[in-house]
Amino acid sequence: MKKILLVDDELIIRKLARNTIQSQGYMILEASNGNDAIELAREEVPNLILLDIKMPGLNGFQVCRILKDDPLTRNTYIIMLTGDLSDEDREQGLLAGADDFFVKPFSPIELLNKIRAFLENEEEIILPDEGEDKRERGQRCLSEETKNEDELYQLEREQLLLYASDLGKIYYEEVKKAAELKKAYQRLKEMEKMKDAFVSLVSHELRTPLSIIKGYVSLINEVLKNREVSADLQEFIKAIAQSSNKLESLIQELLDFSKMKSGLVILEKEEIAMPGILQLILNDLKTETAKKSIEITFQSQSDFRPLRADRARIKEAFSQLIRNAVIFTPVGGSITIEAIDEGVWIKVRIIDTGKGIPAPELENIFSPFYQGMDFLTREVNGIGLGLTIAKHIIEDHGGNIKVESEIGKGSTFTIAIPRSFQDAKELVAELQNRYPQKIEKLSDSLQIAERQLLLYAQDMSNLYNKERMKTEQLGETLKELELTYVQTIAALAQAIDVKDAYTGGHTGRVSFYANCVAKYHNSALLMEKEFIYSLLLHDVGKIGIAEEILGKAGKLSDDEWEKIKAHPELGARILDPIKFLAPALASVRSHHERWDGKGYPDGLKGEEIPLSARIIAVADAFDAMTTDRPYRRRLDREDAKEEIVKNSGTQFDPAVVESFLKSWDEMLVCSPEKEQFPRF
Predict the structure, then answer these.
(1) In this model, does residue 530 exceed pLDDT 50?
(2) CA-to-CA distance for 418 and 399, rounded, in angstroms?
(3) Which of 4, 96, 571, 632 could form a cystine bridge with 541, CB 3.0-4.6 A?
């Protein structure tokens, strides 16, 4: 990870720069003066240093000259920061060895562009293990410095507002990216539909004729085994067999992918006797049919030839279909099962004397989770997957199911499955006269279909992977942006507290109290951005109020009091240009409104006041009463609670006060002397 050292005596500058740079994956080191900067630079050897010119003790020019003269840090890039870059400063900086200059307050976008320009091709610097102890010493130094940050640093308003403006620009750019993400997602869904349609085409439209073609090839070889045939004919037959095998292999790979995704098993084909399978199923259902006194009739040809199929899956499919007939056949009814060998196809008819299926329902009976409903008794049977499973298995074997039904008479399910060979006697006469031309045409068609199918599959795979990668990248960008926003908001909130020494930690405590109340009042608020942002920024308007007014020990004059009362409205104006903070505007503006309508700035009353603002009003008042102010000592917490209850229905929302009382034990956890910022 590439390292950047921030050297500036102003805490807010380091905080805002840190939030900007960390979001891009850099390791951040910090120092508040020249001596610490030199020590830390020699210990860590950063890739780049952002160095303030004007600092107490050693100034930026002196630090730059020392580091550039040191062989260890000579190659480290140094960008000097200044609030006013004069020609004299530029000349001194260049003489000291500075690589570039940057003017404060700075735009975060411009800062990142400047850093990328230097570090884009820079290699990471790796130090020996002996640097671990030094790293800890550097961290301890920064920790000690941070304890006194309220005394050492103050907010720079111009930098704060410039950051907010840039975040607004970034927000709009990311909104555009989010729109692209949505479009990419839609394209991804369309690609999924195309893939499903393609797999359906392979399994339903190509598999059946391919089985017939391979059957023909097998039969031709059998018929011509003991005959003299031309070399051309042998080549044609060989080409058909090879093309058929390649095409079947390609189709099987695509089907295996689809089945893996959907949980279907790979078919294990063998020669099976269909009548025997049906007899086994009827024997398994003997108990169920006997209970309902259903008469079973089974009809089959004596010369029924074997079918090449997956024995377990075929048995499962017909078990579902026959069991379905048993379920919907009334007591004393009958079921007839006919097994018919039609050569290329075998057919099985399942005929029951049930109530029948209404015509509008015929299209739905094979849908997943459709529950067959007896339309006369309204009794639902099963979970609605039996017929769906049967249909998938039959279709996986290249077959199909047709249903005919008549209300009051029953239903007939006709299942047709292709076999992989046909009786030689039915083909010999036609093959003797016409097979050379047909075979040649068939071979060409197979080869074309194979090439086209492969190209289509490859193109679809490439498009799918590109869209998936783009979707993942946009998703990660949005997550990083959201994190940067929240971190910056937290920095703004802390900066507001630094401005008023008497209310240090106020924002954190109010956030803690308000979260406790919201948990009992409406827990959904805890996840809403409007609530989170308004807690952190409800006092942002105090940026525009002079510190001598905020910290005045005596009574405020009328003019001073009016300026204090203006901070909610000022806060709303500050946040208004920043679109991603828009949800918080109403609560920031209204958190000093009263339930009885006597608050400010708009005189709202009752539920006209946003809920978040009503909760903040209670939390804000409680914190104000339980912390020291320049004009009075803090109240005991129990006394403050009584004041909240006393003003319920006048200053505060009674329902919110009730939730305040319910959360009392949790609120006692918060120490008034300690900041309690919520964690994200």
Answers:
(1) yes
(2) 6
(3) 571
Per the prediction, the chain carries an average pLDDT of 76
CATH superfamily, with its number, for domain 3-153? Response regulator (3.40.50.2300)
Mean pLDDT of the region 271-281? 92
What angle in degrees, to the nearest 10, is found between the helix axes of 428-499 and 529-537? 20
Give the global pTM.
Answer: 0.37
Q: How far is CA 640 from CA 140, 514, 619, 624, 649, in A?
A: 39, 16, 11, 9, 16
Residue spans per domain, the chain: 3-153, 187-264+425-473, 269-422, 500-667
Whole-number Å distance between alpha carbons of 414 and 26: 68
* pLDDT, tens only, 97-153: 999 998 877 677 778 888 888 887 766 555 544 444 433 433 334 433 443 444 333
- CATH superfamily name and code, 500-667: Hypothetical protein af1432 (1.10.3210.10)
Examine the pLDDT at 374 and tell me if it is beyond 60. no
Distances (CA, A) of 318 to 313, 314, 636: 9, 6, 80
Please indicate whether residue 524 or residue 469 has the higher confidence score (pLDDT): 524
How far apart, in Å, are the Cα atoms of 122 and each of 42, 45, 117, 468? 18, 13, 10, 30
Report which residue type is found at 292. K
Q: What pLDDT does 95 receive? A: 93
**In angstroms, how far is CA 312 from the centroid of its own chain?**
40
DSSP string, 58-74: S-HHHHHHHHHHSTTTT
Look-up of token digits 């640097």? 131
Tell whether the model's pLDDT for residue 554 goes beyond 80.
Answer: no
Per-residue tokens: 24? 């891009």
Question: What is the distance between the alpha carbons of residues 66 and 76, in angstroms, rounded to a whole number?
Answer: 12
CA torsion through residues 415, 418, 419, 424, sign: positive
The domain 269-422 is placed in CATH, from the list 1.10.274.10, 3.30.450.40, 1.10.3710.10, 3.30.565.10, at 3.30.565.10
Please name the residues in contact with 116: beta carbons below 8 A apart, sequence gap of 6 or more: none
The whole-angstrom separation of Cα 625 and Cα 615 is 16
Alpha-carbon Rg for the chain in angstroms: 40
